[in-house]
């Protein structure tokens, strides 16, 4: 028995056409006008878009960090993800200090296995650079984790030094991997924090002023120089937030440094007015937006929209790092130093990007598909298995019905967290049906699948994507 998705607008990175798509087992087996045979399951996609399943390049599920633990785990987080059309999450498996990378990876495999409603892959976050780590990276790459992560901020818990970055980048060359960087200057953040605290400016409002664009800009330019010194090693900036940061990425690209960039819906849609006033607004209102890098200005959003549209930024991850406002964000009172950094967003990525990107004409449908899935699949070495609707690819398919609108309410979301940064926002259309490797995961907006998501091994990175 085949599943035939009939009469939708099938969108790929190179164009779209109204046609049919056939699924047999876990794979797509045909595209084009398809004649059904008795017993086939027919899914009417008339008036809908048929898209490759989304790849969220940046999630923090079940992560112990900043003195607490993120509230979405692989069960609740991937369930929300799949409802929003994401069929592959790329989570940050983290080797805590003192652990080997193999131990960190085994811990993450255990957290995800048997729990995930969609497929999952890992970036391996490295919080330190002990002797022998380069060999460990090569060994982890053989286990299907070819993308790593380092933090240039968050002292002393996570930050690494320039020489360590240099050695890590050199190490990725042996297996064709990549490293994503949280690119902010951690020492400057600490100094700016010390100054604010010394003058009694500790309200959540001041978080943004301890992470100004200069600290992002400086870190990106330093990263580009280190990559260059290491022989132009592919690497990317995670959660790029600012015009100044983008300028540094493009400057590096012009020199031939293969530096790529991910941004997030929050940097495209939300701005620093969310932090309220300097006299300290209601902590419950403000703390949900305490993230790093912080929200920027409307002018930065305009530049980032242009960058996702013209290919200067290649991926959109959510940086889903969910903490409750009540009990986690507010646990230490109104002092930005005690508010865990992070915000939720795993469920709405594709719908927000459709509503505020495609519908107003900021990005084409083809670009939407590239940003949602194809670029990440190529860059992280899972293409053409993932990220494209083509015969032989995994049948990770989203049917998006662009008709109708709704208003976002946290109470309607399946994220396991007590707020959404998008409360009251309008969404156009909806993710109607989702297939993960050929199995229906969501039908008519309702979860019908199970927790049979699989670990997806990544291959060498295609650093050439633009
Ligand atoms: O504030 C943020 N972004 N928290 C999540 C961890 C990170 O820096 O990506
Ligand atoms: Zn980060
Ligand atoms: Zn993150
Ligand atoms: Zn509260």
Automatic annotation (TrEMBL):
InterPro entries with a match to the protein in the record: Amidohydro-rel (IPR006680), Hydantoinase/dihydroPyrase (IPR011778), Metal-dep_hydrolase_composite (IPR011059), Metal_Hydrolase (IPR032466), Metallo-dep_Hydrolases_sf (IPR050378)
CC cofactor: Zn(2+)
Residues making up the signal peptide according to the UniProt record: none
Modified residues (N6-carboxylysine): 149
Domain of life: Bacteria
Gene Ontology CC terms, in alphabetical order: cytosol
Domain Amidohydrolase-related: residue ranges: 49-438
Keywords from the UniProt entry: Hydrolase, Metal-binding
Post-translational modification: Carbamylation allows a single lysine to coordinate two divalent metal cations.
Keyword DNA damage: no
Gene3D superfamilies reported in the protein's UniProt record: Metal-dependent hydrolases, Urease, subunit C, domain 1
GO MF assignments: hydrolase activity, acting on carbon-nitrogen (but not peptide) bonds, in cyclic amides; metal ion binding
SUPFAM superfamilies attached to this UniProt entry: Composite domain of metallo-dependent hydrolases, Metallo-dependent hydrolases
One Pfam family in the UniProt entry: Amidohydro_1
Family membership: Belongs to the metallo-dependent hydrolases superfamily. Hydantoinase/dihydropyrimidinase family.
Protein name from the UniProt record: Dihydropyrimidinase
